[in-house]
Hints:
Strand content: 25-35%
Oligomer: single chain
Distance between the termini: 34 Å
CATH class of the largest domain: Alpha Beta
Strand order of the largest sheet: 1-2-6-3-7-23
Number of strands: 25
Number of domains: 2
CATH superfamily of the largest domain: Zn peptidases
Structural class: alpha+beta
Number of helices: 11
Largest sheet: 6 strands, mixed
CATH architecture of the largest domain: 3-Layer(aba) Sandwich
Shape: elongated
Mean pLDDT: 96
Amino acid sequence: MITDLQPSAIWNYFYQITQIPRPSKKEEKILAYLLDFARLHNLEVKQDKAGNLLITKPATPGKEDAPTVILQSHVDMVCEKNSNVTHDFDNDPIETIIDGDWIKANGTTLGADNGIGIAAQLALLAANDIAHGKIEALFTVDEETGLTGANSLEKDFFTGNILINLDTEEEGEIYIGCAGGKGTKAYFKYKEKDAPKNYFWFKVQVKSLHGGHSGSDINKKLANANKILTRFLYSLTGKKYGMILSEIGGGNLHNAIPREAYALLGVKEKYKEEIRVKLNAFLAQVQEECKHTDSGLDIQLESAQIPSKVINKKAAGKLISALYACPHGVIGMSYEIPGLVETSTNLASVKMVGHRQIEVGTSQRSSVETQKEYVVNMVSSVFELAGARVTHNDGYPAWQPNQDSNILKLAQKEYEALFGKSAKVKAIHAGLECGLFLEKYPHLDMISIGPDMTDVHSPNEKMKISSVGKFWDFLIKILENV
């Protein structure tokens, strides 16, 4: 059981958090839990119009003159599951599994991103044996679908000048910068036609890819289900097969590399067996390409009933060509920080959204604002050339590193004193809320820390148990000595 793990304070709260559904934009249950927690512990709490919460704990005796520290996490989680798993993220608790030194979920995302940060905040707020100055625990909403909670944060909501974000995924690393991001969507309109007879109708499914975070995992060359599906569909275009598309879908969230995709389509009956042979050859080809990153990759073909309606050929052709041409992956590496991805884009999702429209979701990231806009326009131009309507969200700014940060220097000192080695100081290609905080509170001195996690934003997400204790000890030492 999770509750048997040490340190018990943080693990007990993490277990409670796994029992509370908290999808993005549906955080009412976790917010109610946090409000009850504040009242139970007689702590001051307030909530802004966006739903963000701030719970304040006074300084312990002797620490009244210490600076106020803001501890920050987001309350929502990415809700992804394997296709063979039955799970209702709106109502069901997360089923956790301990596997050696790792904790994971049973076929779903674990929610350690950012549940372990929330657990650390609550454990500190409830503790009576840890010395610290005034703590302001900030809980933001809807981070995973656009950082809207941080973007809507009211001015003067908190008073501290030091902020520790608890949303990174590598123990022993202190983050002082992150990429900015923006979302781009394309909408393809189509006309419905009656499905022709004397056609072989079948469903193609790309399955069992690794998936991952579209920021921190984008440099791992993980396979993208939408791109693989499109390659096969593109090979069927032209006059020979007379390919007709009825349905298409793949991926779900803008910040996850898609693991599954499918299409329902038809070809002339006489090419039925040739298509099967063609798909088997294509599967062998992509399995060889992806053997180092996605060894479980599978593509399945199954016969289907004739659909009632299909997408007109011209619209289907433009959609397939645009998906084929749309860039995905790393666009450029940083010259200033070795090994850091500077700019990337993720072809995240393809969805039939009704009213004879297909929505293609993508996300772009960069630590350089001009490069972010460059890749946004690059993706937009592909879809505009194909006749799609393109929209963008507001995006969020990068968090530029500050090597002279006082809280960074203290954290480095305390980490070395605790563990006898230096912490690594890094920037991350994923998006953190710190850039938005800095826009509204330019005086903030910030770092970001967390325990070891892998494969976040996918059902393979897991967290290293032994790293949680080190993360906890490190956080306590910073608060004791700030």
